[in-house]
């Protein structure tokens, strides 16, 4: 792939920065990117993020702004909102949250008061910081109560969720997370939330693209609020959305603006609209199902090589590997794999005896490699590279890591990445 891409104005004005962008383009082209929350956006999404829409302030909502000159911006935001409603089958969408954490915080502002109880999945079990975890503002300003998974199956412990909900009577229940390899039973969460009169927020950040493409069940109609980032499996820009029934529209909109944010990032809104347009196309259904097929094939290949997978496999885009049995800490493995051109993140596993900054696992996923067109036939090869990388990490074998890096780059050269393809 002839990289870097041409950025003439940037190169002329700030060559140092342009060089860094070029180096990142090269890195993203040459490596096998397996972080499950990352992806490659299309050239169209990338272009939308770099438009003059970013020059405009637009506090408020379409037709109700505090600044003039919104003739085009209102239409951009309305397009994004209408597309979100159509893709996810919801009555209301707010496309302004800056990212996932502010989106979740808006749900707190809309439906709870400081000190109220919220119930979410604990971070080391696969949840997210903003689901009431202690070090987050959400676990500091609110009373965070946390559920987890069964030790033997790695599946969500719904008896625990129900018991905690009945005992603690949370104002909000969060479902969804960052390291959940299995299908989320939104109906089961909805039933519990209704029983205790809690607002159910489904945080679908990781699986939004799978839901849009019909490869994971939808939280509609079980969740009161749906929160998502737009840059993971949905393959949009870095941003977020909140969706809900019409009854919650006013509370959510008020919480986002003026509750938490000022002007929306209009260039991001435009790119979200583009991504949703792409997600509505038939090809995106194929993409979403291919992501899952690849993850399942990769999980099978890893199991065949003796890797221990949390929950024994995957239903979605994500595989969580417990490296305890391989006698290699997650961080050591992740850093070695990085040197081998395979980009993953180290991650806690449920009931991890190690610390979050030095945990037992690595988290991998297939959204990015599927965007580049790799199919299930190549997943045994990916598993082999991971095994060689982990073995080399243990043996401190830099030559073996360099060999894998060369093989990875050679293969990836045949699979140009969206947004980076220059031909
Ligand atoms: N940082 C995201 C992830 O990697 O899953 C969650 O916020």
TrEMBL record:
The modification N6-(pyridoxal phosphate)lysine is found at residue 232. It holds the Pfam family SHMT. (6S)-5,6,7,8-tetrahydrofolate binds at residues 123, 127-129. Keywords: Amino-acid biosynthesis, Cytoplasm, Methyltransferase, One-carbon metabolism, Pyridoxal phosphate, Transferase. Its cofactor is pyridoxal 5'-phosphate. One of its GO terms (cellular component) is cytosol. It is found in: Cytoplasm. The keyword RNA-binding does not apply. Residues 10-386 form the Serine hydroxymethyltransferase-like domain. It catalyses: (6R)-5,10-methylene-5,6,7,8-tetrahydrofolate + glycine + H2O = (6S)-5,6,7,8-tetrahydrofolate + L-serine. The record marks 231 as: Plays an important role in substrate specificity. Its EC number is 2.1.2.1. CDD domains: SHMT. One of its GO terms (biological process) is tetrahydrofolate interconversion. InterPro entries: PyrdxlP-dep_Trfase, PyrdxlP-dep_Trfase_major, PyrdxlP-dep_Trfase_small, Ser_HO-MeTrfase, Ser_HO-MeTrfase-like, Ser_HO-MeTrfase_PLP_BS, SHMT-like_dom. One of its GO terms (molecular function) is pyridoxal phosphate binding. The keyword Cytoplasm applies. PANTHER family: SERINE HYDROXYMETHYLTRANSFERASE. Homodimer. Belongs to the SHMT family. NCBIfam families: PRK00011.1. This is Serine hydroxymethyltransferase. The lineage of its organism: Bacteria, Bacillati, Actinomycetota, Actinomycetes, Kitasatosporales. The gene is glyA.
